[in-house]
Amino acid sequence: MVRLGLPHMNKRRIEENIFKGLMIFSTFIILSCLLLILGTIIIKGLPAMNLAMITQTPKGGYYLGKEGGILNAIIGSLYLAGGATFLAILISLPVVLYLNVYTKKGSRLVFFTRFSFDVLWGVPSIVYGAFGFTIMLFLGLRASLLGGIIAVSFLIFPIMSRAMDEVIRMIPEELLDASYALGATRLETAFKIVTRQALPGILTAVLIAFGRGIGDAASVIFTAGFTDHIPYSLFRPAATLPLAIFFQLGTPIPEVQERAYASAFILTAIILIVSVVSRILTKRFTKHVVK
Amino acid sequence: MQTKRLLKDKLASKFMLILTVFSGLVVFFIAFGLYQRSRPILAIKPLTELLFSTSWHPLRGEFGLFPFIMGTLWVTGVAVAIAIPFSLLTAIYLSEYAHKIIREWTAPLIDLLAGIPSVIYGIWGVLVIVPLIKDHIAPLWGTFSTGYSVLAAGIVLAIMVFPVIIHVTIEVFRSIPHELRDASLALGATRWQTIKHVVARKALPGIIAAIVLALSRAFGETMAVLMVAGNVAKLPSSVLDPAYPLPALIVNNYGEMLSVPLYDSALLLASLVLLLVVLFFNILSRIILIRVERRIQ
Fold first, then answer.
1. Rounded Cα distance, A116 and B177, in Å
2. Nearest to B250 by CA among B216, B214, B223
């Protein structure tokens, strides 16, 4: 409490209060940025929403303001992020289990792998896009759903691995020892004991990665292409929500820009749902966990 | 039966080892892949010309990346300058002052800030920050700006890197033993004095690492910056000028890059430069953080 004018008041206390005030102010500013962003997207996006946006693909002249919706981008993004998340699980889960069950504590391999994931986490998504593009040139692929899935899985697997690793690391050594004492192999311990114990954390890691994958634009712009159709094969181009937002905002026509706001609202809603679901899942699945 | 299980364990072990080593080496694969593709242009042009020439005319075969590198540096500099005071003060507040309930409420919100896609930041920048600069900030300085500027990109990026600095700083502060604080408080120091002279001094390398990490995040951020920076390939001379950052260059030209000779090579060289700079910052900050962790243990 500020006690102005009392004899306790001295330079130290003034400084204390000034800085405390600045800190509360900063925290307030940062949290209001979040509210301001969400608020702007809702206020601009909600009035522009209609059923056609989420049930139709773009019809002729859509980008000139004629009718249609962005179902192509919604489905494309779900396919793409879903496929990439699946691929990333196939890599992350074995790697993280290996790091925590098979290797000795303090091994060089563990240190190096964790370090490498941390560094990969910081690599910008445009670089993954460019790398995905070089892979596609190498394999002779054109811009396609598959190309996008490959690029995005490279982008999200370090995030997923690191998040899984954080949880699996916390599992008490005794639980593993108990499993070995019953005669289980390391493989059985890894997949039947460790995975179950860490299930809430693993699901959260998967959802974080999915959320990151569905929102990323820079990695898919070279690799997945863009189309007005819903992709029916891995080798066809796929539209994605972030790119749909970007392209629609870039047109000079106000009606189409309105649709960019509505698309932004849809993407934000998906991100919020994923975030809330991951919190609920974490709570619910915790009941199988040995405390 | 028994041998079958053991065999399975052995096989799985080998397979997982290969997968682990492979995934640990991904960063090298990326660097190698990009290097391979940028070789054609490196073979005929000296690297110094590519990096320090201001002449960007792909059709004439001139690929000077300097304006774009400077664009990125301006934008990153402004972003980090804005982000440092706000996020450090917030991190100190949350780790040293705030009540447990406040901490539990703000943590998911800051996570959410980190989880918002960059294209959403971009659209928000276009809707709020760009008009703000055009109508209020630029007239305040007595100049004209379209609003699409270094400052707009810097503000949007600053908000994007808040969570990075806050997270890392809180982690570092948390790792500092409580006894240190207690000792200082027992000597009659105020909380702020304790933070200033004891905690922050101990945490300084970690704070630097957090800032460097934010720097590298800002350096490579693409979509949001692309949408608000204005994208004019000229060296900016003030924060109200437009800039053309490196990542924006890569995205904007992917359409033409296969039809002009060496264009794709130049753009992949730009990605390689981006990767190497970010790797340098990242590795530096991770090494500092590992040192901090070890020293405290």
1. 28
2. B223
**DSSP letter assigned to residue A228:** S
Q: A79 versus A280: which is more confidently predicted?
A: A79
Tens-digit pLDDT profile for residues A115-168: 999 999 989 999 999 999 999 888 888 889 999 999 999 999 999 999 999 889
**pLDDT tens digits for range A216-275:** 988 998 888 888 888 888 888 899 999 999 989 988 888 889 899 999 999 999 999 999
Q: Is the pLDDT of residue A5 over 60?
A: no
Same domain as A68, residue A24: no
- Residue in A127, A188, A260 closest to B220 by CB: A127
Residues of chain B neighbouring A36 (CB-CB closer than 8 A): 124, 128
Instruction: Tell whether A135 lies on the interface with B, counting CB pairs under 8 A.
Output: yes
Question: What domain range is A218 assigned to?
Answer: 54-288
Cα–Cα dist A131/B274, whole Å: 12
Taking 50 as the pLDDT cut, the residues of chain B under it are: none
ipTM of predicted complex: 0.91
Q: Which residues of B touch A94 (CB under 8 A)?
A: 15-16, 19-20
Q: Which residues of B touch A13 (CB under 8 A)?
A: 190
Q: What is the 3-state secondary structure (H, E, C) of chain B?
A: CHHHHHHHHHHHHHHHHHHHHHHHCHHHHHHHHHHHHHHHHHHHCCHHHHHHCCCEEHHHCEECCHHHHHHHHHHHHHHHHHHHHHHHHHHHHHHHHCCHHHHHHHHHHHHHHHHCCHHHHHHHHHHHHHHHHHHHHHHHCCCCCCCCCHHHHHHHHHHHHHHHHHHHHHHHHHCCCHHHHHHHHHCCCCHHHHHHHHHHHHHHHHHHHHHHHHHHHHHHCCHHHHHHCECCCCCCCCCCCCECCHHHHHHHCCCCCCCCCCHHHHHHHHHHHHHHHHHHHHHHHHHHHHHHHHHHC
**What CATH class is the domain B43-296?**
mainly alpha
Question: In this structure, is residue A1 part of a structural domain?
Answer: no
B243: β partners: B230
Q: Do B127 and A44 touch (CB under 8 A)?
A: yes
Average pLDDT of chain A is: 88
The closest CB to that of A98, out of B16, B90, B113, belongs to B16
Whether A37 and A148 share a structural domain = no
Chain B partners within 8 Å of A138 (Cβ): 33
A31 and A170 together in one domain: no
CATH number for the domain harbouring residue A92: 1.10.3720.10
Q: How far is B291 from chain A (nearest CA, A)?
A: 13
* Domain spans in chain B, listed from the N-terminal domain onward: 43-296
Tell me which residues of chain A, numbers 235 to 274, contact chain B at a CB-CB cutoff of 8 Å.
Answer: 242, 245-246, 249, 260-261, 264, 267-268, 271-272
Asked if B185 contacts B132 with a C-beta cutoff of 8 angstroms, the reply is no
Q: Which residue has the higher pLDDT, A12 or A86?
A: A86
What pLDDT digit, counting tens, does each position of B173-223 carry?
988 888 889 999 998 888 899 998 888 888 899 999 999 999 999 998 989
